[in-house]
Amino acid sequence: MRIAILGSVATQIPPIGQAAIETLVNYQALGLAAKNHQILLFAPVGSSVSHPNIQLVPVGRGGTLSGQGKESEEGELEIGSSYKLRLEIAHLSILLQKLIDLKDEYDVILNNLRGEAVIFPVAKLLNKKVFHVMHMPLFDEIASVIKKYQTSLIAISIAQRKAYPDLNYAATVYNGVDPDLFSFNPKHLDYFLYLGSITPNKNPAAAVRVCRSLGVSLKIGGRIKDEKYYKKEIEPFVDGTQIQWIGEITQEEIIKMYQGAKAFLFPTLWEEPFGLVLIEAMSCGTPVIAYANGAIPEVVVNGRTGFVIEDNSEEKMMEKMKIIDSINRKNCREHVEKNFTIEKMVEGYNRALAGISQ
């Protein structure tokens, strides 16, 4: 099959640091190419996904676009706060033109872009089937567009489908990791870990509060997407000893952080679509303590690979932190090997694409 994979216009593939969607697109493209599909991968300049069956189509220039980082760019200072949004739309328009120009070189479109709504009408005009991977939750306006164009959806969790159960779901395909890369460590050091976006909905401030209350060490890092939140809820409590800010780090450093952590704290407040960091941590043997929002109960086995906390309760999180050594780190690793490998994920995409394109 000839597949146009729409990866990103904002972040190179694979990413240098933390970027869940772009990481998954890298696995997706390489895995489907290994199954002898011919891949056109639409990705920013600087991307380097290498396989004989993959042709890179450069779109965008990488960097941070609307809502993806705290950095201000020269253009934003000159043009105003809408600069990054308009820049992303400009990159999307170029992508659409290339999608049109290359229409005879692919059969189906596998979309990972967050600008999904602009893809569907163009695909209809081109008479191309689209599979949209739901990396992010839907909302009414997007769901309406999906319904209008009868787009085939690939959910990344069962929980994700509950808000709009009547849409056209081709499959549910859990995210996967490379267990050889995120390798197992049977022992841990004496710190807890949070890695992820620094935003109110991810709620890293709760991780800071529970660790301060218990007098235990926390390493916290990730991309600051809300500067005001970081300045108010995180930075004042960073002391370099108990609460350590590690910022955005490389994949190699991320893996070391996972491997050494006593547990991974994930007090998310939103309806989490999946949580790639959770399976990365568990692959390294690190148990997870997470709030029971969205797909968390599908990913973490309560009492076996960590603890799932009801009611967004910091008190309950602290109770489980005290007994985290009751979790066998081997259970975490085996759970990932059984359910969340790249091979399982790619096979899920392969079946979904084949089932609808026949």
Automatic annotation (TrEMBL):
List residues of the Glycosyl transferase family domain: 188-324
Q: Which InterPro entries match?
A: Glyco_trans_1
Query: Where on the tree of life does the source sit, at the highest rank?
Result: Bacteria
Q: Which GO terms describe its molecular function?
A: glycosyltransferase activity
Give the protein's recorded name. Glycosyl transferase family 1 domain-containing protein
